[in-house]
Amino acid sequence: MSLYLDYLKEIEERKGQGLNPQPIDDGALVAELVAQIKDSKNEHKKDSLIFFIYNTLPGTTSAAGVKAAFLKEIILGESILEEITPTFAFELLSHMKGGASMKVLLDIALGGNQSLAQPSADVLKTQVFLYEADMEQLESAYKAGNAIAKEILESYAKAEFFTGLPDVPEEIELVTYIAGEGDISTDLLSPGGEAHSRSDRELHGKCFITTEAQDEISALQAAHPDKRVMLISEKGTMGVGSSRMSGINNVALWAGKQASAYVPFVNIAPVVAGTNGISPIFLTTVDVTGGLGLDLKNWVKKTDADGKTVFDESGDAVLEQAYSVATGTVLTVNTKKKKLYNGDQELVDIASALTPQKVEFIKAGGSYAIVFGKKLQTFAAKTLGIEVTPVFAPAKLISHEGQGLTAVEKIFNRNAVGVPDGMVLHAGSDVRVEVNIVGSQDTTGLMTSQELEAMAATVISPIVDGAYQSGCHTASVWDKKAQANIPKLMSFMHKFGLITARDPKGKYHAMTDVIHKVLNDLAVDDWDVIIGGDSHTRMSKGVAFGADSGTVALALATGEASMPMPESVKVTFKGEMKAHMDFRDVVHATQLQMLEKFGENVFQSRIIEVHIGTLPADQAFTFTDWTAEMKAKASICISEDETLIKSLEIAKSRIQIMIDKGMDNEPQVLQGLIDKANKRIAGIRSGENPALTPDANAKYSAEFVVDLDKIVEPMIADPDVNNDDVSKRYTHDAIRELSYYGGEKHVDLGFVGSCMVHKGDFKIVSQMLRNLEEQQGEVAFKAPLIVAAPTYNIIDELKAEGDWDLLEKYSGFEFDDDAPKSTARTEYENMMYLERPGCNLCMGNQEKAEKGDTVMATSTRLFQGRVVADSDRKKGESLLASTPVVVLSAILGRIPNMDEYKAAVEGINLTTFAPPLNELSTKA
C-alpha cells in the first residue's frame, strides 16, 4: 500500500493549499484501493471506496482499466460488496464513457448470461464513445445472430442515446457578472504563467481572474441558487487571444455545473457573453462544453439626426448603452423564441447562439457526444442495412448557383464529409471536414491527452497525414514543473502516433522549435486543412484553424473537425513598399487601414484571403500569424506557382532534417509528407494542379486594398495602457507611426523572437550591429535585448553564413542545451541574451520582463500581464514592432526617431515585398 500512503501524504499537502484530493489516473494506485476495499477489516476501506467511486478518472487511463475490471467482478458476482451492488456497478460504468468500460459492457452484453446481458445492453444504449474495435465486436456478434447485439444496433440506428436525453429548457435564468471591460483574453481566464497546472483542474481554477472575482461569483450563486452566472466582456469580445480549453474549463468550474457526480472537477454548460460576442476560437470551446455564448450588442454606435455615426476627438465611434447588463442583473434566455429578456422586455435576438446544431450540443452536454453519436448512428444503420433515421439537425448546406468559390470554399468543398455528390457549398454552410495536419503544443497538450483518454481514443486516425507534439512553450526553462509534465506528455503522444519534439526514449536531441513554424513546414499542400492547439495555428499554405485542446483531440481521434464555413475578406495590395520599411510594418498597416476604411473590424470571425503572391511561406507567415490578433477565424495565402514550389522545397528540406535527426516514427509519417510535397510540386509544374486560387466571380464579405505608398514609417501596435476608456486598452487596434513617440518614449527591454520572425529577422539583427559599429564604433545596449530564434535550423543557417558569430560577440548569455536553465530569469542586464529556440517571452509562462517594464517586442501578445506584469511604479507595457525597431530601441533605451532608424537600416535588405503583377484568380 505504498502508493496509497503516498497519496494520503499528497492529500495532506493539498489541504494546505485549500485543495481536494487529486483525481486518480494511476492503475497501480486503484489496484491498492481495490485490495483495501475487498478487505472488510482494512482501516482504509471506507476512504478507499470514496476514492474508487468518486475520484478515479474514466476513459483510457490505467486507473479506468482497473476500475472497470473490478466493477465487472462485482457484476459477475465474483466479488460481493454491500456498498457497490451490481446495479450501482452498471451505473458507475455508464459514467466512464468508453475505453475499458465499453469492453466490460460489451463482453457482458454479448456473453452467455442473459440476466446480465439486458442491463448491460441498456447501459450501452446510452453510450456514444465507441471505436473501431468496439464496433467490430458488436457487428460480429450481430452477424452471428446475437439478439442483444441487434437490439443495441437498432437503438443506435434510432440515436436513442440522444433522443432519450432531456430537452433543453425553454427558459434559462441568468444572473450577470461583468468579468472585465473591453476585450477579455483567455489569459485572464487561464494565465499563461500557470500553464503547468492546467491538467490539475481544481488547482488551475485558483488562477481564474482574481480571488476577488471568484468570491463575487460565489456570492452571486449563493444569492441566486436557481440561476446560472453569465460572465460578460463589457464593451468587448470574450475570449480573445490564445485557444485555451483551460479558459472555458475555469469558467465552467466556477460558473458551470458538474458533468458527472463520479468525475471530479469536470464541469460543463458555462454561459459567457460579450458586447461584441465571443472570439471564434473560444466559441468552439463553449460548444465543446455544451455551453452558451451570447453576442449581447448592448453598446451601439451613436448616430446623429441624419443617421450618421458620431465620432469623438480621437476619431473613435461614440458608443451608447442599448441596455444594462451590470453585475447582478437577472436575465432570461428563451431557447424557443431565441431572445434574451429582462423580465418582459426583449433585449436582443440570440438566434446565432441557438442554432439547431448548438442546441444539440447543449442537450448532449457538449459537441463531442454529437460528433461520435452521428458516427455511431451511421455505423449502426449501415450494419443493419437500413436508412439513417433523421434525428440530428441536418448539416447546414448553402449553395448559390452560378457563384464562384473563394479559396476557403474550395478547400472546404474538397475536404467536406457527408455532402451530397455534386453539391457545391458556399460560406455559411456548417460541415464536417477531413483534417490533414494536426498540431498539439506542450502547455495545452496535457489537456489534449486527458481529452483523448476521456473519449477513450488510443491511436491517431489514419485519415491524418501527420501530427506533431511540440515542446516550444516550455523551452525557456527546464524546471521541475516541465520535468514532471513534458516527458509524460511526449510519451503519451509518441505512443498515440504523433511526431514528438522530445523523444521519450532519448534517441534524438530535443527540438524546441516553435510549433507554428513546424506546422508551416508539415503543411505541404495548399489544399490542406490544419488544426492546431494554439490560436497562432495560421499557416501560409492551406487553411489552418487555431483550436482548443479538445478540438485537437477530436481531430487526432477521428481525423475530422466540424465547423461553419466562414465568409472571406479579400485583401490585395497596391503601390510600392519603401526600402526602409519591413514587412511587419505592412502587416500592422493592414489592420490600421482596414479600421480607417470600414470603421469596424471586418476581419473578425472571417477568413482573410490575402493575395500575397511573391513571398515564400516563411515570410508570408508573418501576415497569417498576425491574423489571430485581427480576430480573424483564419487566413489563406494566395501564392504564385513558383513561390509555392519554392516554399514546398524549403518545407521538404526542413522535414528531411527532422528525419535525419531520427524523429520519424514507425509508419514513416515524415517521409510520407515529403512524398506528398513531391506530388504537389509535380502537379504545379505539369499545370494539372496549379497553386490554389479563388474564382474570379467568388463573393466576399468585404474587399480591401492595402496601399503600400501610405506606409512611410515603422508601425507599432501599442497597448494604450493609459487610455481613459478602459475598453480600449490592451487591444491590437492602436497602431501608431514611429513619429508618434517623438524619439522619447523609454524602453526597458527588447525582444526579438516568437513565431512572427523568420531567418531574415536575425540577419537584420547582425547587419544592424555591423552598421552601428561602422557608424559609432562599439555598440552598447542601454536596455536588455532578448533574442530567441523560433527554430534550430535558423541558428544552423546563421552559423553557416557568418551572422551568428557577430551575435555571439555581443551576447552576454548564450543558451546551452546540455545545461538548460532550471529557473526563470527575473532580472536582466543591459546586454544581448541569445536564448534557446522556442516561445520565450511571448508565452509569458516561464520567462517574463521585470514588472512595470516597457517592452518593445516582435511577438504577438500585448495583453495585460502576458509578457510583463504591472508594478507599483507603473503599468507594464508590451509594444509590438518590427525587428529593426526593437533592436534599435534596446540599443538606445528608447523608441528611435526616423533619422536614427533610417541610419541604422541603411543598406540592409529588409523583408521585401511587391504585390503580384497579375490578379491571382481563375474563372468560375
Automatic annotation (TrEMBL):
<dbReference type="InterPro" id="IPR001030">
    <property type="entry name" value="Acoase/IPM_deHydtase_lsu_aba"/>
</dbReference>
<feature type="domain" description="Aconitase/3-isopropylmalate dehydratase large subunit alpha/beta/alpha">
    <location>
        <begin position="410"/>
        <end position="893"/>
    </location>
</feature>
<dbReference type="GO" id="GO:0019629">
    <property type="term" value="P:propionate catabolic process, 2-methylcitrate cycle"/>
</dbReference>
<dbReference type="GO" id="GO:0046872">
    <property type="term" value="F:metal ion binding"/>
</dbReference>
<feature type="domain" description="Aconitase B swivel">
    <location>
        <begin position="178"/>
        <end position="405"/>
    </location>
</feature>
<keyword id="KW-0408">Iron</keyword>
<dbReference type="GO" id="GO:0047456">
    <property type="term" value="F:2-methylisocitrate dehydratase activity"/>
</dbReference>
<dbReference type="Pfam" id="PF11791">
    <property type="entry name" value="Aconitase_B_N"/>
</dbReference>
<dbReference type="InterPro" id="IPR015933">
    <property type="entry name" value="Aconitase_B_HEAT-like_dom"/>
</dbReference>
<keyword id="KW-0411">Iron-sulfur</keyword>
<dbReference type="Pfam" id="PF00330">
    <property type="entry name" value="Aconitase"/>
</dbReference>
<dbReference type="GO" id="GO:0005829">
    <property type="term" value="C:cytosol"/>
</dbReference>
<dbReference type="Pfam" id="PF06434">
    <property type="entry name" value="Aconitase_2_N"/>
</dbReference>
<dbReference type="GO" id="GO:0003994">
    <property type="term" value="F:aconitate hydratase activity"/>
</dbReference>
<dbReference type="InterPro" id="IPR015931">
    <property type="entry name" value="Acnase/IPM_dHydase_lsu_aba_1/3"/>
</dbReference>
<dbReference type="GO" id="GO:0006099">
    <property type="term" value="P:tricarboxylic acid cycle"/>
</dbReference>
<dbReference type="InterPro" id="IPR015929">
    <property type="entry name" value="Aconitase_B_swivel"/>
</dbReference>
<dbReference type="InterPro" id="IPR036008">
    <property type="entry name" value="Aconitase_4Fe-4S_dom"/>
</dbReference>
<dbReference type="InterPro" id="IPR050926">
    <property type="entry name" value="Aconitase/IPM_isomerase"/>
</dbReference>
<dbReference type="InterPro" id="IPR015928">
    <property type="entry name" value="Aconitase/3IPM_dehydase_swvl"/>
</dbReference>
<keyword id="KW-0479">Metal-binding</keyword>
<dbReference type="InterPro" id="IPR036288">
    <property type="entry name" value="Aconitase_B_HEAT-like_dom_sf"/>
</dbReference>
<protein>
    <submittedName>
        <fullName>Aconitate hydratase</fullName>
    </submittedName>
</protein>
<dbReference type="InterPro" id="IPR015932">
    <property type="entry name" value="Aconitase_dom2"/>
</dbReference>
<feature type="domain" description="Aconitase B HEAT-like">
    <location>
        <begin position="6"/>
        <end position="162"/>
    </location>
</feature>
<dbReference type="GO" id="GO:0051539">
    <property type="term" value="F:4 iron, 4 sulfur cluster binding"/>
</dbReference>
